[in-house]
């Protein structure tokens, strides 16, 4: 089951990734939530596929909202954020971008990255 960004409200935490459809969609998610992990990914990307279960776990087990952006469907949005490789992970805290990492991160590093901003 997939969840689109409009199904979650700011006062109801989501426990699975939100699928982003364009810049306005991402802007709404970032502005409505305290901490957002954005996963820029592609279906054909091996490291993205390996990261997928971890991203779902982060969504389920942390206070962060996880948003997924398919770079093939959202090329302009990827360009706006300077995404040159996938996966690229961005972290937003209080509406501001605070982190950007290209490549798959191990679980402990990804969790500590999120926890910096959710505690």
TrEMBL record:
What are this entry's molecular-function GO terms?
protein-disulfide reductase activity
State whether keyword Glycoprotein applies.
no
Sequence ranges assigned to domain Thioredoxin in this UniProt record: 5-119
Q: Which InterPro entries match?
A: Thioredoxin (IPR005746), Thioredoxin-like_sf (IPR036249), Thioredoxin_CS (IPR017937), Thioredoxin_domain (IPR013766)
Mind naming one GO cellular-component term on file for this protein?
Answer: cytoplasm
**Stretches the record annotates as Disordered:** 1-24
Q: Which UniProt keywords apply?
A: Disulfide bond, Electron transport, Redox-active center, Transport
Task: Quote the NCBIfam families the UniProt record gives.
Answer: thioredoxin
Name of the molecule in the record: Thioredoxin
Q: Which organism is it from?
A: Natronococcus occultus SP4
């Amino acid at each position: 089951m997939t969840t689109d960004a409009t199904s979650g409200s700011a006062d109801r935490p989501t426990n699975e990734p939100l699928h982003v459809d364009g810049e306005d969609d991402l802007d709404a998610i970032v502005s409505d939530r305290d901490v957002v992990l954005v996963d820029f990914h592609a279906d054909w990307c091996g490291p993205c596929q390996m990261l997928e279960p971890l991203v779902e776990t982060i969504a389920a087990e942390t206070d962060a909202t996880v948003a997924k952006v398919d770079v093939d469907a959202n090329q302009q949005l990827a360009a706006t954020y300077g995404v040159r490789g996938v996966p690229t992970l961005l972290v937003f805290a209080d509406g501001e971008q605070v982190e950007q990492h290209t490549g798959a991160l191990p679980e402990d590093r990804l969790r500590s990255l999120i926890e910096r901003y959710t505690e």
